[in-house]
Amino acid sequence: QVQLVESGGGLVQPGGSLRVSCAASGSFFSIRDMGWYRQAPGKQRELVAGISIGGSTNYADSVKGRFAISRDNTKNTVYLQMNSLRPEDTAVYYCNAQIKRYSYSSAAASYWGQGTQVTVSS
C-alpha cells in the first residue's frame, strides 16, 4: 500500500512564508512526477506546481516567483516553499505523485495525500 502524508500547513500572515512537505511511504518501485495542488472553498482543485523525476519544474502563473517546488528522491519527499503569501493563497494543499508499484508496471498510478490547510490572514 502507498501513502502520501503531508505536513507543514498552518496560519501565516500576508507576506509570510511557509513550507509544506509530502512524504511517500509503502511498497513501490519508483516515483515519477510529483506535484502540489490546492483547492479553495467553492473552487475547483488547481495545479500549483509540478516537478519531474529529473527535476524539471512548472508553476501556475499565480505563484511564479513566489513558490518553489523541490524533491528529495532519497527520502521520497516533495516540498513546496511558499513565500510572499497572499490571502488568495488560502486553500487546502494536496500532494500528488505518479507512482509505479512494480518494475513491470506499464504505467504509473496517481496517488493523493490527505491535504493540509494553509490559511493566509492577518
Describe the protein:
With 122 residues, the protein is mainly β. The protein is built from no helices and eleven strands. Strands 2, 4, 5, 6, 9, 10 and 11 form a seven-stranded mixed sheet that branches. A four-stranded antiparallel sheet has the order 1-3-8-7, with no helix packed on it. The mean pLDDT is 96.
Average the pLDDT over all residues and give the rounded result. 96
The gyration radius over C-alpha positions equals: 14 Å
The chain-level structural class is: mainly beta
Q: What is the approximate shape?
A: elongated
What is the quaternary state of this protein? single chain
The topology string of helices and strands comes to EEEEEEEEEEE
User: What is the number of strand segments?
Assistant: 11
* Count of alpha/pi helices: 0
- For the report, how would you describe the main beta sheet? 7 strands, mixed
In what range is the share of β-strand residues? over 45%
Q: Give the terminus-to-terminus CA distance.
A: 40 Å
Helix amount, in percent? Answer: under 10%
Low-confidence stretches: none
Nutshell version of this structure?
This protein has 122 residues and is mainly beta. Helix content is 0%, strand content 56%. It contains no helices and 11 strands.
